[in-house]
Amino acid sequence: MKSNWTIGIIGGSGLYQMGSLEDAQWIKVETPWGDPSDEILCGRIGQVNVRFLPRHGRGHQIAPSEVNARANIDALKRVGCTDILAISSVGSLQEALPPGHFVVVDQFIDLTRTRPSSFFGNGLVAHVSMAQPVCDRLSGYATKAVRKAGGKVARGGTYLAMEGPQFSTRAESRLYRSWGADVIGMTAMPEAKLAREAELPYALIGMVTDYDCWREDAAFVEVSEVITQMTANGEIARKAAEAFIAALPDKRSASPLDTVLDHAVITAADARDPAMMAKLDAVARRLL
Fold this sequence. Notes:
By secondary structure, the chain is of the alpha/beta class. It is about 25% helix and about 20% strand. It has one domain: Nucleoside phosphorylase domain (Rossmann fold, 3-Layer(aba) Sandwich). The longest helix has 24 residues, at about 225-245. It is globular, with a radius of gyration of 18 Å.
C-alpha cells in the first residue's frame, strides 16, 4: 500500500484539471489566510491520495500577484498533503532550454515585491533555511516522470521569480541571464518558501513556453504563442504527474523537511501570541 503518501499537485498555467483521478470530488477548504485559488480536487490514483489545486483557478481567473499562496499551502496542509509537486509555465533564459522542454528546478531567485512570504511574524517568529529550496527526492521522481511522459527535461535549474504581470524588458532579461538564472516565471515564490514553512517537501516542474526577450534576433513574447505552447506542455505535464505518482515507493519514508520547524521557531513558548498560534493550527500543528 502507498496510503501514507498524499500528494498535493499545484497546477500552473496550462494545467487546470486532473482527469485521471478516481473517486474525485471538488472540496471547498477554508483557511485563516483567506480563500485559496479554487476548491481542491480530492481523489486518488491507484493507492495514492491526490489533492489537486489549480494555482490560477479554473479558467485562469487569478493574476500572478493576486494568487493567495498562503491560503493555497495552508489548504493543502489541511487536506492531509505530505508532499507537493508544483507545475508552472516558465520562459527560458538559456538557448539550451527551448520551448517545449521541461526543467525540474533546484534553485530560486526571488524578485517578488508585493506578496506575503511567510506564515510567521510578530508574536511568533521563525526562520527556515532555504539554502536547498526543493526536495531532492521528489525532484528525482519528477525528472524520471517527465521522461516517461515523453518530455525532454533538464534536472536542475535556477528559477527567477518576477512580480509581473508584465513580461520582462530586454535589459532585465539580459541581467537575469548574467545572474545565472535559467528560467523565469511569476508564481513559484513565495509558494516554495511557504511550503517549507509548512513542512511540506516541494518540487517544481517548469514547462518552457517561450524564450524570454533576451534574444536579439527573436520577436517579443506574445500571449497567443505562449498559450499554444502551454497547451502542448499541459498534456505532457498531466502524463508526468500520473507517472510521478505511479512511481512512488510503496511506503513514504521520513524526510528531513518534515521537521524543519524544530530548528526554525525562535520565539519562546511562553511568549508566543495565541492569535498567531491559532492561525497556524494547520501549518505548524505538529510543533504547536
